[in-house]
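Hi F.,

I've been meaning to write this up properly since the lab meeting, where we talked about keeping a consistent format for the predictions we share between groups. The idea is simple: the sequence comes first, exactly as it goes in, then the structure tokens exactly as they come out, then a line or two of notes. No screenshots and no reformatting. I'm using this chain as the first example so we have something concrete to point to.
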Amino acid sequence: MPAPTTHLMAIPAALVPHIVLPRLELLSEARTRGAECVWGGERLTIETAIDLGKHTDDGFNWFPRACRRCTKAAVRAARDAHPGRCTECRGPADLCDARCALHDLLLELRR
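Output, unedited:
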């Protein structure tokens, strides 16, 4: 029987800008390089980490990753705050593609 494959879950690049990350200057080196959850500080492995993409701040490249629990909370906050910042979201029945994608991502993270 072949060994199960492991891969790093990644947040779609188009959604990453909607998710609020901690300020870079407040993070440890382990959090900026993705060894620990960018929010909670938990040690991450390839099986537990969720990739939040490459970020560049003031010419410094960093690679935040997060645990599933903290990512769910951040995506939920982004989803809930989005309509108040979006001119395309006009109410519960008229939501933009980004808001719908954030909701779908939250459902995926709950699995």
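Notes:
The beta strands are 9-10, 50-51, 55-57, 60-62, 65-66.
The first strand starts at residue 9 and ends at 10.

If this format works for you, I'll send the rest the same way.

G.
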